[in-house]
Amino acid sequence: MRVYMYREVKQVDTTTACPADRAPWRRSLAISRLSFRARWAVTLVCFYGVGVCGTSSILRAQNVEEHEVKAAFVLKLINFVQWPSHNGSLVIGIIGTDATTDALERLASGKSVDGRGIVVRRLKMESDLTACELIFIGNSERNHTPLLLDRVRGSSVLTVGESDGFGQHGGIINLMLEDGRIHIEVNPQAAERAHLQISARLLSLATIVRDGA
Fold it and tell me: By the 8 A CB rule, do 87 and 77 touch?
């Protein structure tokens, strides 16, 4: 899997994939004066396609913001992680009040992935965090990140964040914006503690970080 970034996008079509051998199609897009929003749309289409029910509604629009892309990434990450057991719905806990958490709640509500219905819960500091399969900690809660991560340490909870040092504090997956694209950090130590298996495909795309490093 590769992330393709183009210079200009006139139209985004999510009904087709992005094969590498379509040189004329790729050349037609390789023009300067890039639209930031269109670039995000192409990143999603080429890297992820439409793997989660309902994601296509975001991909069809060129008006795609950074926080919407991150929210779509969070949902797609589910396909690259194996939990020790799968029972019923997949519960996503959201902590924080910012654009990304709002986008994730909006995108995930009522959707399903891998045959499992998604349940979205807005969590507070005092909530039972271990009742979720995935917890997304928004940037607005970056000052509380070490405490939150410590509370789920050893539990089979996939922790995903978007702040500097998230992985070093023990978070499993961190989504960072670098040079106009989403950059993925993974902490394999944290995943092992949580008894979660991260796909080699995802690890090959990510920067590996360690606790405290």
Answer: no
Q: How far is CA 198 from CA 83, 112, 162, in A?
A: 9, 20, 18
Mean pLDDT within 36-59? 42
- Using CA atoms, how far residue 128 sits from 112, 134, 157, 171, in Å, is 23, 12, 12, 17
Q: For residue range 68-124, list pLDDT tens digits in order.
A: 889 999 999 999 999 998 778 999 999 999 899 999 999 998 888 878 899 999 999
Cα dihedral value 120, 125, 128, 132, nearest 10: 30
CA distance 151 to 153: 6
Q: Is the dihedral of CA 53, 132, 213, 144 positive or negative?
A: positive
Measured from the Cβ of residue 56, the count of other Cβ atoms closer than 10 Å reads 16
Contacts 24+ apart (CB under 8 A), 142-146: 142/166, 145/169, 145/171, 146/170
CA 80 to centroid of chain Cα atoms: 11
Can you give the residue ranges of every domain in the chain?
Answer: 1-64, 68-208
At the topology level, CATH places domain 68-208 in: Rossmann fold (3.40.50)
DSSP codes, 3-18: ----S--S---TTS--
